[in-house]
Amino acid sequence: MKTMHLLIALLFCFAPAAQAAECKDTSGYAKARAIIEDLNRIVAPNGIQESYATRIGGVDQWISVRGQDKANPIVLFTHGGPASPLIPTMWQYQRPLEEYFTVVNWDQRGAGKTFASHDPNPYADTLKIDRYADDAIEIAEYVRKRYGKRKLILMGHSWGTVVAMSAALKRPDLFYAYVGIGQVINVRENERISFDFGLQQAKARGNTEAVKEMETIAPYPGNQPITRERIITARKWAQYYGGLTAYRNESPYYYRAPLLSPEYDDCDRAAVDQGNEFSLGRILPEFLDVDFTKVKEFPIPVVMFMGRHDYTTPSQPTADWLARTQAPFKQGVWFENSSHMIMWEEPGKTLVSLLQYVRPLTDEAKADTKRPSGAD
């Protein structure tokens, strides 16, 4: 199974879509899933573990809520992709976070269980960035009312940063802070940096095949349209040389995660790729025009987690944006041994950084106190 983050594996995304999701039998993994399910069961008296669908933006969307203590602040996490849900992968990294936060994940429209649970075609024309952002806002409103919270922490990864940042700019009153992981700032600039890195690495390593292939689309993106064929060629080698997961030329641990997820059944697992194929082509044209460089002031505290080796959504544009943007509080955190998959690559530092920089912002007294900004 190859689930997709934003433009991670366009080679697969643009293969001809299957006529219907094949619910492949994965019962051979049942015993392993049972162990994971038992280990991750929330048993603390004041804990919470819920999974359900609720009506958001006219679509029944699936939500997972997990935490050891209902009194903890809530993190609303917007997943990447598009249509690469975190719910079937969260068993790999989320458990430590649940000791200090209640974590809300949801399968966005066109993704995962939301895609699998009913015919997506009636809402196909709604797959627009503004609609996703409005979904995030509706879910934030729903969650804070259901669980008795005044505000939430908003966090996004990859494509999810486009959704989450847009939501934060629309409704800053709902959120204590925004955390971007693998933040998208300007897509065309990201494409250029990613391509240049891949070409430089290929030349340095004497990979004449890769150099020849990449030079067929140079300069990239240049002034030419960013077609799916050019994206495939550009991203292929950057990710091969560690631009997706640092020091690795592939990321099977992530792609295979749904096989062991106790949250998904076989049809849900099949729907991950199906949802990606359904969503990406509809979202891609608008996504290619994303540009947050025009945002000079951010209305709430902002913390950026940046992988030093990330050439899927390159980190330097994020650091540059953070340096020149005004915000009530801002902090950049560099993850020196990470690329794009920060929560998986450096889970310990992810937790420590959230506790050091983000959780204090949820304390009402501290949230209104000016704190020095900087980068770590």
What's the layout of helices and strands?
Elements: H1 10-13, H2 30-39, E1 48-56, E2 59-67, E3 74-78, E4 102-107, H3 112-117, H4 129-146, E5 152-157, H5 159-170, E6 175-181, H6 187-204, H7 208-215, H8 228-243, H9 252-255, H10 266-287, E7 302-307, H11 316-324, E8 330-335, H12 342-345, H13 347-358, H14 364-367, E9 374-375
Parallel strand pairs: 3-4, 3-5, 5-6, 6-7, 7-8, 8-9
Antiparallel strand pairs: 1-2, 2-4
Structural class: alpha/beta
Strand order of the largest sheet: 1-2-4-3-5-6-7-8-9
Major sheet description: 9 strands, mixed
Number of helix segments? Answer: 14
Summed over residues and divided by their number, the pLDDT gives a mean of: 92
> What's the total number of strands?
9
Feature tags:
14 helices, 376 residues, alpha/beta, globular, nine-stranded mixed sheet
Descriptive overview:
This protein is of the alpha/beta class. The chain is globular and about 60 Å long. Helices cover 39% and strands 15% of the residues. Helix 4 (129-146) packs across helix 5 (159-170) and helix 6 (187-204) crosses helix 8. It has helices at residues 10-13, 30-39, 112-117, 129-146, 159-170, 187-204, 208-215, 228-243, 252-255, 266-287, 316-324, 342-345, 347-358, 364-367, and strands spanning 48-56, 59-67, 74-78, 102-107, 152-157, 175-181, 302-307, 330-335, 374-375. The longest helix has 22 residues, at 266-287.
